[in-house]
């Protein structure tokens, strides 16, 4: 029996497993896919920052730790690096607000041109956040899982958890096609699957699946130099010559989705000089778990046999949340930073 079974090897589950294994806890990490980070993590735009964006509910209490926890992981895990490009945002309202948050700066056309020299028609003004960064979410997840294994964790892929194993009101582990995986504590990080797994438990977990579509584009290296957010699209360079582009989500036949992808690609080409060399490699839609009132992080049973961690954005919060969850499970002391993230028990 493992001390802890973590269900889901996306970036949140990988972070929890890594931080627990680093504390000497016996951990088993179960993933339904063929490898780490192959689900919604692979479909994340992976924009990391602590200044801009939405921070609902208890996420607000975590934002100040995001960049420091990423810097810590960079020091702990060889090969993990953030692309600290900063971001430019215009046309979405933030650039017109009279007061900006700390770390945000209003910049004019000349500064925008310096930051993004390939823009054909820079706006008159934008909001610049120099501390914003991007990360290769799948590569980071793989590094976290490899480091957890090196510290003694057991990892099983293609192991879809179907239900909790109950003994009375206590959860003794999880069931998959390969059998029972016993544990003193089960940590559920499997995104939109968590509410269904928790149906027998006295926990209220309002989570919706929010579709998001990303295109991958081959481009001249350095075509896009920051994270660019406009009313029409968001785009960033993941690695030299590899862009991620957000697409509007379209329900319906594949032909409509194909049209939407090519329309967004043409908007990108219209915005940047040198984009005639770009090639649309493909696109994919993921179903992001979005809790109704902010992150859901904490015990889902009164006997503390099940712990849940569901949030958006998982990529932004995973290093911080993994550290705090591991500390709670090891010390049995509640982390004050997570107090507003607790699931409601009835």
Helix/strand layout:
Blueprint lengths: L1 E6 L3 H12 L4 E4 L16 E2 L17 H11 L10 E3 L15 E4 H7 L9 E5 L3 E2 L2 H14 L3 E3 L4 E7 L2 E7 L2 E10 L5 H4 L5 E2 L2 E12 L8 E3 L4 E6 L2 E6 L6 H18 L7 E13 L4 E4 L6 E5 L3 H18 L12 E2 L1
Parallel strand pairs: 1-2, 1-11, 2-8, 4-14, 11-19
Antiparallel strand pairs: 3-7, 4-6, 5-6, 9-10, 10-11, 12-20, 13-16, 13-17, 14-15, 15-16, 18-19
Helix pairs in contact: 1-4, 1-7, 2-7
Task: Give a brief outline of the structure.
This protein is of the alpha+beta class and 346 residues long.
3D architecture notes:
The chain is of the alpha+beta class. Helices cover 24% and strands 31% of the residues. The chain contains seven helices and 20 strands. Strands 1, 2, 8, 9, 10, 11, 18 and 19 form an eight-stranded mixed beta sheet that branches. Strand 1, helix 1 and strand 2 form a beta-alpha-beta unit. Helix 1 packs parallel to helix 4, helix 1 packs parallel to helix 7 and helix 2 crosses helix 7. The longest helix has 18 residues. It is globular. It starts with a strand and ends with a strand.
């Amino acid at each position: 029996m493992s001390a802890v079974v973590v269900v889901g090897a996306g970036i949140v589950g990988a972070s929890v497993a890594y931080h627990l294994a680093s504390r000497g806890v016996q951990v088993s990490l179960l993933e339904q896919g063929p490898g780490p980070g192959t689900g919604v993590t692979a479909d994340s735009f992976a924009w990391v920052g602590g200044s801009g964006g939405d921070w609902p509910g208890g996420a607000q209490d975590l934002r100040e730790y995001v960049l420091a926890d990423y810097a810590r992981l960079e020091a702990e895990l060889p090969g993990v690096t953030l692309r600290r490009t900063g971001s430019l945002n215009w046309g979405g309202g933030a650039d017109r607000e009279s007061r900006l948050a700390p770390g945000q700066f209003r910049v004019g056309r000349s500064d925008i041109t310096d930051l993004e020299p390939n823009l054909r028609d820079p706006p008159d003004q934008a909001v610049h956040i120099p501390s914003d960064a991007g990360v290769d979410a799948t590569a980071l997840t793989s590094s976290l899982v490899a480091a957890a294994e090196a510290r003694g964790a057991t990892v099983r892929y293609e192991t879809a958890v179907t239900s909790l194993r109950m003994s009375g009101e206590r959860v003794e582990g999880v069931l998959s096609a390969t059998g029972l995986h016993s544990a003193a504590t089960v940590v559920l990080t499997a995104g939109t699957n968590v509410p269904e797994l928790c149906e027998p438990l006295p926990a209220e977990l309002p989570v919706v699946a929010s579709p998001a579509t990303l295109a991958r584009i081959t481009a001249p290296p350095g075509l896009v130099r920051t994270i660019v957010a406009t009313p029409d699209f968001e785009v960033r360079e993941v690695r030299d010559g590899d862009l991620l582009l957000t697409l509007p989500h379209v329900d319906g036949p594949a032909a409509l989705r194909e049209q939407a992808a090519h329309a967004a690609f043409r908007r990108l080409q219209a915005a940047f000089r040198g984009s005639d060399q770009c090639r649309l490699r493909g696109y994919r839609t993921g179903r992001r778990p979005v809790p109704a009132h902010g992150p859901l992080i904490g015990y889902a049973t009164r006997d503390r046999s099940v712990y849940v961690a569901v949030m958006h954005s998982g990529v932004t919060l995973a290093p911080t949340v993994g550290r705090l969850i591991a500390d709670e499970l090891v010390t049995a002391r509640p982390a004050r930073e997570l107090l507003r993230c607790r699931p409601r028990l009835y």
